[in-house]
Specification:
two-stranded antiparallel sheet; alpha+beta; 9 strands; Ku70, Chain: A, Domain 2
Length: 297
Amino acid sequence: MPRAIWSGAISFGLVNVPIKLYSATSPKSVRFHQLSSKTGARIRQKRVDPSTGDEVAYEDIVKGYELSPDRYVMIDPDELEALDPKVTKTIDIEEFVDLSEIDPIYYDHSYYLAPTAGGAKAYRLLLEAMREAGKVGIGRVVLRTKQQLCALRPTGDVMTLTTMLFGDEVLAPDRLDELEAVGEAEATKRELTMAQQLIDSLSGAFDPTKYRDEYRERVLELIERKAAGEEIAVPPQAEEPSPAPDLMAALEASLAAVGKEEEPAPPKPRRRAASTSSKDGASGRKSGSRARAKAKG
């Protein structure tokens, strides 16, 4: 049974839905430690005062905000604690919006919400009402003393809470100078048609189970082989593929490659069945041999 990481209630209007919060994702990565190449011992990190070279005890460390190079404002932990958002046990929904209005760039971490004892009916009511309306609840929640913007949405038969970035945390793309060239570039009608054909030929229903972290699998395989004492020969790095001569040639080659993948395999040639006459002849010869053997006996 998974362990809830937070419990409280969804609050919208005067309605409260008691819930528990569970992790919805489990990112997988291969983690390494820093070791000495000479002894194989794990390296320890030390906090050192560069002005004296002495190690600094944890209780003597304070937080500082850098105003300019080597100029800091020191902040006392009690001063920060006084500014912490009021810890509440509610997810306060402020408004409902259409899912299509939220750019996925604002999404951060996702969690599942499950009803607590006595909250199943209210939970299902909110779930079905949001699903029928096609709406997402936008609100705020305090997790680990930090106030988070969040989106509450139905996902199948469960409600999902996704923490979100605030507006000033998402960088505007207009700061990229390279995008000026995009506005000046113009595709021909034929290029656009072929690009759409290529998209159509590669389109399908999204199935997350068919995608795997192949790099992580190769790293784990490498670790297993080295742990078993196998020597690993590092192959030379492959050269980068040369760019396509032009956009139209790349589109035509891509469409041809996709079409070749979709061609059905030619049917295998069927074996000819033995003729009836030859079968009958063989059967007759076997019967005659049995008859002669019986007569001799």
